[in-house]
Design goal:
Length: 154
């Protein structure tokens, strides 16, 4: 995205169409190089979903880019006026880009989190996932035991 401002006119546009980026150190380095070749002010807008955004956000932030990480619900609710519900990575990328253009001035820069907080969040998510899996396994074991008990009684 690029942005140009004068006292009366605000011009914003998408300057790159969606493209794939390898989620590796080399892939992120190539992305950084590609972004550095663009003219004007660059703001990188990304959704706060899952775990994969964190590495990308930190890498681009450390490379000196303005990175804004936005809750996916805000992006979804900002332009959900289409009759068709297209759900592809490219459509999502365009929706995020348009959100960035619409809220360019209001985008908050990603400040990062301290490492202890990140580790605690990851540990909490892993614990919840493990506890849920254990509950499912116990439930299925009890169901299996009840079924085998019925077979023995009959």
């Amino acid at each position: 995205m690029s942005y140009r401002s004068d006292p009366y006119i605000r011009v914003t546009k998408i300057v790159l169409l969606p493209f794939d980026v390898e989620h590796t150190a080399e892939g992120l380095k190539k992305l950084s190089t590609k972004l550095r070749q663009l003219d004007g002010e660059i703001r990188i807008v990304m959704e706060h979903t899952g775990m994969f955004w964190r590495t990308i956000a930190m890498t681009l932030k450390e490379a000196g880019f303005y990175v804004s990480v936005v809750n996916a619900i805000l992006i979804h609710n900002s332009s959900d006026n289409s009759i068709r519900k297209v759900k592809t990575d490219r459509a999502d990328a365009m929706k995020i880009a348009n959100y960035g253009l619409t809220f360019w001035i209001d985008l908050q820069e990603y400040a990062g989190e301290d490492e202890t907080r990140q580790l605690l969040k990851i540990q909490s998510q892993l614990y919840e996932r493990t506890a849920t899996t254990a509950w499912i396994l116990r439930s299925s074991c009890h169901a299996t035991q009840n079924d085998s008990t019925k077979l023995l009684i009959t």
